[in-house]
Amino acid sequence: MHISRFPRLHFAHLPTPLEPLKNLSKLLGGPQLFIKRDDCTGLATGGNKTRKLEFLLGEALQKNADTIITQGATQSNHVRQTAAICSKLDLRCEILLEHRTGSKDPDYLENGNVLLDRLFGANILSVPAGTDMDAAMEETAAEIRKNGGNPYIIPGGGSSPTGALGYVNCAMELVGQANDRSLRIDHLVTATGSAGTQAGLLAGLEGTRSGIPVLGICVNADKETQEVKVFALAEKTAEFLGIPGSIKRESVVANGDYVGPGYGLSTDGMIEAVQLLAREEGILLDPVYSGKGMAGLIDLVRKGKYRKDENMVFLHTGGSAGLFAYRKTFTA
Ligand SMILES: *Cc1c(COP(=O)(O)O)cnc(C)c1O
Description:
The protein is an alpha/beta fold. The chain has helices at 22-28, 49-62, 77-89, 106-110, 113-119, 133-146, 161-180, 196-207, 223-241, 268-281, 290-302, 327-331; strands at 18-20, 32-37, 67-73, 92-99, 123-128, 151-153, 187-192, 214-218, 253-255, 311-316.
């Protein structure tokens, strides 16, 4: 697959490392666990949105945009990475933050990613939970156009076919790394939210005929809702790539058992996963995505769903800046 046909900027630190999780593998008693370190993509504490932004900003600059508009939850990692790259590229950054969790904790409201958004000088508008975020972004765009600006809207999580190209690229990178070291990957596991990561991976893994299955652990939706969402975007991404109809519905697999009470709300499994990875591997997960993703992986391994001689890769999607917004969760 030849993704150089698409406009792209190069600011992510790639390739990200693929490392064994020796202590965790030993503690859980197999399968052999590995971690793909997309928490180390280099942009303002890193994370998965950086790969998507390489293609999204490539398209925005091709269209001569002078302002980027995007949206996310209060502690959005996507928003933080978007604000950072806008600073570097000297673009105006308009952010809409939806107060989805309803938390009144000052750490949640102002620390972590929000502190960083402000450092990058983004214009932030906070709106209540349930706001139609796409409509709100359109309103902001209309206002900017009226004043002679040229806005480019990035959907929540950067999850459009353009953004998903970042994870087509990641799939090719991962397959290359595995081939270089003769590592047979039997399972790839990642947290899934706005769906661009899993959709891009599916398109890239299918496009390379890798035969590697992907499991998405949901952070806000039930299994069926998430699979439908991922499938729709994976199909659009495959079409965009020039391989229409290549994604099979059965290859889209999500697990909704680890969401707990809702998006951004803590679970015991998440807390355990964050603590385990910190204490066993010196790796920081996050409370909203990678913590729940890893909680799912750990639980499924404990339930004996995988063989000891299998190799499993966890895609670490980043987000550790969010830990500072959840101080009470980890110090109680
Ligand atoms: C956005 C995000 C995800 C989910 O990725 P999607 O492409 O939105 O499904 C996972 N982990 C972290 C840390 C994120 O910020």
